[in-house]
Fold these 4 entries.
Entry 1:
Amino acid sequence: MEVAIITGASRGIGLEIAKRLVSAGYETFGLARQFDTCDLTSELFHPIVCDITNLSELTVAASQIVREKKRVDVLVNNAGVGIFGPLDSLKISDIDIMVRTNVTAPFVLTSELLFWLRKSSGYVINIASTAALKTQAQGAIYSATKSALLHFGDCLFEETRKQGVRVTTICPDITGETDFYQHNYFAPSENEDTFILPGCVADAVINVLNQRPGTVVSQIVVQAQRFQITKRPPSS
Ligand SMILES: NC(=O)c1ccc[n+]([C@@H]2O[C@H](COP(=O)([O-])OP(=O)(O)OC[C@H]3O[C@@H](n4cnc5c(N)ncnc54)[C@H](OP(=O)(O)O)[C@@H]3O)[C@@H](O)[C@H]2O)c1
């Protein structure tokens, strides 16, 4: 049975992707710090409690999976954190957590699993953001981390394409029905054409996996029809 590993599988976009991977028949290992509100129960789904910013926890989790399964077919680097505001209003710990979650963890996890992904002609699917593609005020660190992930994916593809590895970056626009904006000063507006949904990103993942051998979708941008946000005081 083909094996998928996805970070941030407990909620939001990652949970929706994990559900689709299970429906597509992948034995799916999902990493997150807690699964209390995760409603995915399937014999194909294995929740693994892991803080991906703790690199020893992350590498132990990865090696346990490959020791048991001896294969990895799909890696989805989905977990991410966004903290927005003027640069000098961010705490040092805000900057640090974004870099460690959005950049260091996917770089390290991909590196740890690359041997197995080469063996399976597997997929690396990175969930970046439209923030990787444009300049925006009050999002310098987040945008820079997502640009780094995007460029990492493109470079990794050049490095591994001859070995059969398929690398895709998906750039979702502002996404409703997630906890992503919980601690931020803005959130998706209520108008349905101003946000996408986690299922739209999961559809994109399945589309990537359904390409004929020899075809690689390098980048997908999923945008809302209109741009609109709601400003509000962040919850503590
Ligand atoms: N929502 C949007 O508008 C939007 C738009 C573009 C791109 N994205 C990107 O899409 C991805 C998913 O975001 P989302 O909207 O689904 O956010 P979310 O609802 O906040 O979910 C984030 C997921 O990442 C996990 N996570 C965060 N830090 C972690 C850590 N240190 N170790 C392990 N898991 C961790 C969370 O699980 P635990 O908290 O249980 O650990 C959760 O499963 C992110 O990379 C985000 O940057 C989101």
Entry 2:
Amino acid sequence: MKVQECVLSDELVTANSPEVALWDAIVVPRTIKERLRNQTVLSLLVRPDLPFEVTALHGLCTLYGPPGTGKTTLARGLPAQVASYVPGGEVRRIEINPHGLMSAEHGQSQQRVSELLGEYVPGLASDGTPTVVILDEVESMAVARSAASLAANPADVHRATDAVLTALDLNATQHPHLFFVATSNFTSALDEAFLSRSDAAILIPLPEPEALREILTSTLLTLAGKYPALGDLARSSAMDRIAETAHGLDGRRTRKVVFEALAQRLDTVLDPGRLTEDDLAAAVRNAVGETSQPEVPRAAY
Ligand SMILES: Nc1ncnc2c1ncn2[C@@H]1O[C@H](COP(=O)(O)OP(=O)(O)O)[C@@H](O)[C@H]1O
Ligand SMILES: [Mg+2]
């Protein structure tokens, strides 16, 4: 696999780009979005003018937390959120899929990581436009060296992690217009040296009842555009009670549970407007029951 194929997207975005909707769709405490936005703007504004010795900023922020909590979506929406604050009003958004790199042949990962992060990505951004680079599910690259001892080819993983760290150090001093936003579904396996280079490591938690309610309601209200009766359900007081029972669901499952509710009866499949609060409550109960089952162990990296 060529390093170019690990770049999922490379485009210029402005504050009016459609990506704004991505950011808005994610329901998290306001302080989380503000911290992510502010850290990014600060980095893009300050680092080009001050030496690394003064700022000690690497231009890296890590979003971590359980799967399905909106990390990838926030990272994708971030460039449009910061565009209006940078000179020129435009931000380049580059999205990397690190998994492709790690499937490289034995012994090649380090070289690929260096080539991608140290040469190819800076090359894409060589015109100096403020650039946000998304490293989605970075754990596949920056895996803890202590945890890697069980992996099939630990030496290769170590070298790849070293290559990521070297590239981040290079970025810190030589490419101040690049800002990396990494996402990870877990942190216990993230390399400590990687985390210590993060200017901010932000936990994206499972949604609280209020957020669960907002996710359910907004999903129903969007559907109500086509099936108006769902607007009544969305605004009914039953939603508070249903949201309370959804405790433990992640954001993705909470959106899906509305469709799981519709799928329970052919009636509601054919006419979603007939969905009742009991249908929704039953689907939520079922989803919570499934997610509280003991977890299937994850494959060790
Ligand atoms: N906090 C949230 N609020 C609203 N929707 C969410 C939230 N978290 C996840 N979702 C839904 O799940 C989808 C997938 O989320 P994603 O960003 O891939 O999560 P992660 O990267 O944390 O696994 C989103 O597009 C959105 O529809
Ligand atoms: Mg993700």
Entry 3:
Amino acid sequence: MRQHLVIDADDTLWENNIYFEHAVHAFTTWLNHSRLTAAEVRAVLDEAERLMGYGAANFTKSLEATYRRLAEKEVVEHDLKQVRHFGEQILAHPLQLLDGVQETLDYLAARHELILLTKGDLEEQKLKVERSGVEQLFRHMMIVHEKDVHTYQHIVTESQLDPQATWMIGNSPRSDINPALAAGLNAVYIPHPHTWHFEHEEVVPVRKGRLLQLASFGELRSYF
Ligand SMILES: [Mg+2]
């Protein structure tokens, strides 16, 4: 039977968070703070990110704000430039589909209706989708500010989906799995080892929908 497959993008179709982790590591190492541990520096950065907003462009601003707060010497343009460079590297990175994604999307698109659902900065996400080369396999694409239970309820109504024949597929328990299940959809959880720590959450036991957990995107071919 034809299903509606709503698919997350970052860290489900392509690598994303690992580039942020590399940038944080490079920044923390370079900062080499005399009193704060890497985890403490990270906590200051997290706070800046919550204020500044998410996405690579905002991340660069958050790095700069963190540096201004933690610098143990006079803040000069030369060092600020270096700090911004750590963030700018994220956008410079070529987009890399995860293993098996291209073949699996080709396979799924021929059998089911695919909808891309990603959250974040509108322009940045659009650009990533374009660079991915898989855009044409989706019936449509949605870029949202937040993925919560209301987002999923809205998608069901707006796209006139049958919740029982709709699956949310993604790597984030907090944004993809739990709210989709709470909205009465089914879900496929595909953990990624470098999931952003803001997205960590326990997967809640299923009440209505069905829940599958797979080790890789390619395994979808065995179920759909
Ligand atoms: Mg994701």
Entry 4:
Amino acid sequence: MKMSCLLSPTLREDPSEAEVASHRLMLRAGMIRKLAAGVYNYLPLGYRVIYKVSRIIRQEMNRSGAQELLMPTLLPREIWEESGRWGVYGKELFRIKDRHDHEFCLGPTHEEDITSIARDSLRSYKQLPVNLYQIQTKFRDEIRPRFGIMRCREFIMKDSYSFHSSEESLDKEYKNMFDTYCRIFDRLGLKYKVVEADSGAIGGGFSQEFMVLADTGEEEIFYCESCGYAASRESAGIGEYAVQKNVGQGLVPCREVKTPDKKSIEEVSAFLKIKPTQMIKTLIYETEKGAVAALVRGDHDVNEAKLKKLLGAEDLRLADEKVIEKITKAPVGFAGPVGLKDVKIVADNVVPTIEDGATGANRKDFHLTNVAYGRDFKADQVGDIRYAVHGDVCKKCGKGKFAVTRGIEVGHIFKLGTKYSKKMKATYLDENNKEQPFIMGCYGIGVGRTAAAAIEQNHDKDGIIWPEAIAPFKVAVVPVNNSDEEQMKVAEKIYADLSTKPELTGEVLFDDRDGRVGVKLKDIDLIGIPTKIIIGPKGLKDGKVEVKDRKTGNMRLVEIGRIQFQ
Ligand SMILES: [Zn+2]
């Protein structure tokens, strides 16, 4: 490709709307252009990256035994009513009506459609398992689209769905997809971690996320330095804390202290001149099984998903002011476990280890100090009910400690179970000729997001540093002076020769533009081409050219005709 013909409107200045590196650099390198909020054009350089990411995904999915198909974007309301999601999906679902007033949505995921395909086409257990995938445009009406193609309203995804007649078969395919995803992200040249995750809105059972590591990542990843277990902040399991045997012994009795208008942990601990780690935070929740007081250390946060699980509750929400006043006999901000009645008390594992604690006195403008677990109060249940923090003990091995890094979610694999097949009455006939709901798995990769995450992980002050496998071009040939006949002749020959090599056909960018070489090299670095071949007068004297590596900055002089790539 000759750069003089390439549509790559690079920008000298940082665009003001871009908050993250990938957004800024894709705009500056002329890879994407915004059409509307969260809606982007992929210009040729950007689309070459998307194409390469998709190609690797497609090759590995095909190798895994999955079959590619293509489902429509336009999905009728009826199948979404069957799954029950039309009513619960909310405003993120783009809904439209046709001229006959029939309602449709623009697909954000395709569980409904694929389940209807299975219902129509798979009759017998003998046809299972089957894994079907597509690479297609999805729609989600994000409340606040941001970060360029990282969080947008129209985006490209690979989604696949597997159908099984047994849990064992699902487990096997889940493992197959896990291995396939590892191969995909390895081939893309990205550093990543696989973390245990919360299933969220899609529901179902076990799930794992593939996270590309980047300091700028939106999400925290907790990983054990000893056993390698990794999990999102939501689901990182915390090991139990050893309770000191003599907690509370030898302490002065607990006493009430006036804390006028001091309600928050920060206010109270500052006022009492104690650390937040000495405070026992008390939150009142309502569940279908009754009210619950959840206790965590002052510097910790209750993880409602964990609390729900521990309680076996379906419905859990923070109690309103009235309920809190009824239970604690005090206004909001003064709740504590001492003397609390008519409510189940659930304490985090750490709470019994707090010596000399402070907490609300269940009385307006008062707190208690010198509180000891076991002496002044006891919990009905003790367990892991909070978000992990740096240094917490890993639950998996029970000895390693959590370190925290950041990442960007690019893939997610789920064991769905029968959630959709039961609701949509999608069944097959088993060995005994009995109808059974399909057991399902689903597996997604954000294609555009992966490209953006690759930039978040690989860039410097000069621009993008693409991993070789997904760089828009592999090599750039840059003559120092376009009006120098010899340089141009050598450059054109190198361009022509390299282009005949199968692995480089269509992968060589020839910077034939007029202008200063400094400007040209700046553009090539911004775009992130892995290798530059620079043809200048100094090298040519000895029949050599400069070959420079974008990532390391290493430069070597190579004889013309001996230029080689790995
Ligand atoms: Zn561990």
